[in-house]
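Hi V.,

Quick status before I head out on leave. The structure for the redesign project is tokenized and pasted below; the design run finished overnight.
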């Protein structure tokens, strides 16, 4: 009798666990999915996630929250991102070359040692960003943004060997 009760309790516990897993899916933060999978699935809030080192080239993103997301050393080439927030994010060493960021808020982001060659950043906010060693060669930015960035531009990009001030055309 005691054995039957224990088996019944174990069976009931297994059933409850199965129901919980089916009815309450794992959150994206715990599921270890790539950003590409989450974006393709229509997820719009990827804040505080870690996508460092991933290949996210050629993605098209709109109305996305990437606040405090780790995108360090990520391949973001040929990406199109619009009307999104990347505040306080880590983009250190990321390659954002040939990409378009329109009306994107990068406020407080770490763009140190990133490559933004021929990137188009019109209408984007780059307030308080770390641009030490960032390569903006042939990038298109709003004139006021360039003036603001030049006040704190320094360093040399470790991948391209280009000075940040030179790449921005600072005087």
């Amino acid at each position: 009798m005691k054995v039957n009760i224990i088996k019944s309790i174990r069976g009931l516990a297994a059933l409850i666990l199965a129901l919980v897993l089916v009815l309450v899916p794992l959150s994206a933060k715990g599921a270890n999915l790539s950003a590409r999978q989450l974006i393709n699935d229509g997820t719009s809030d990827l804040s505080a996630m870690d996508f460092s080192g991933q290949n996210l080239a050629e993605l098209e993103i709109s109305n996305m929250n990437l606040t405090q997301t780790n995108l360090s050393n990520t391949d973001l080439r040929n990406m199109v991102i619009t009307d999104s927030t990347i505040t306080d994010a880590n983009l250190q060493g990321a390659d954002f070359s040939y990409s378009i960021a329109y009306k994107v808020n990068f406020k407080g982001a770490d763009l140190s040692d990133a490559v933004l060659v021929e990137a188009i950043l019109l209408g984007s906010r780059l307030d308080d960003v770390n641009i030490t060693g960032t390569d903006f060669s042939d990038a298109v930015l709003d004139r006021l943004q360039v003036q603001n960035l030049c006040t704190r531009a320094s360093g040399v990009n470790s991948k391209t060997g280009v000075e940040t001030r030179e790449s921005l055309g600072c005087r």
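Above is the designed sequence. The domain at 31-168 is CATH 2.160.20.80 (Pectate Lyase C-like).

G. will cover questions while I'm gone.

Best,
W.
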